[in-house]
Design a protein that fits this description.
This protein has 267 residues and is an alpha/beta fold. The protein contains nine helices and 14 strands. It is globular and about 50 Å long. The two termini are 15 Å apart.
Amino acid sequence: MVGSTYGVKIMKVCVLASGSKGNVTYVETNQHKLLLDIGTNVKYIKEKLLELEVLIDDIDMVFISHIHDDHIKALEQFIKKYHAKVYMTRGMIDELPAEHKIKTYDNLVLYDDDIYVDTLKVEVIKTSHDTKDSKGFILSECGKSVVYLTDTGYLNQKYFPKLRDKSVYLFESNHDIEMLINGSYPKWLKSRVVGPYGHLSNKDASLYLAKLVGVDTKKIILMHLSEHNNTPEAAMDTIHGIFKEYNVDFDDIKCASQKEKSEVITL
């Protein structure tokens, strides 16, 4: 059972789905049960939460990273049907496509800066993706921390001090460069993926993580692996190779899946 007791200071993390067909991550803090992105259908979210013995009605907060369908598929239903506070920026709302257009609801919360809810701090990181407004998050509570960073062409070095030595990294490792170059994507799409508003390659992600992991880091989960231009083996080989090259002694690394939830990480 995932459920926690408020008096016990814990944080739990489980990636429910990650990839181009849908992204959802569950985080449980001392007082809250929340989701990072809701990019699958509600039925899938309910099923995966039930596997954790969590009801969808237990979710009290949702944080949206950006407006692409694989991150907001269930947005309209969450806004209209459930009581969870849904955190979005004004830029995200302005960019919503017609099928996701929403009016003002009591559970919609606009954010522009870091978010504080009880003892939970959510630091907002600006990412670089082909949307009007895209964000990553650092969730911190009681000395435990989770970095959620996906769908970005690069990572601005000004954020490195904030991102160093966190407990868990949920970090995009989208494509293998050689697989992408030699793959079937049209030229324009290849250019988009590798461009400054695209996605992190295995190599880029590994180089960033080599600079960020520290003595308090417990787990890395590589996120948003491309179905066509990557494999878990390629992503793992790359990060292990780069960590060895840079003398980074850390190997508790997994790849998130599109169809299966990850292990539950307890901090």
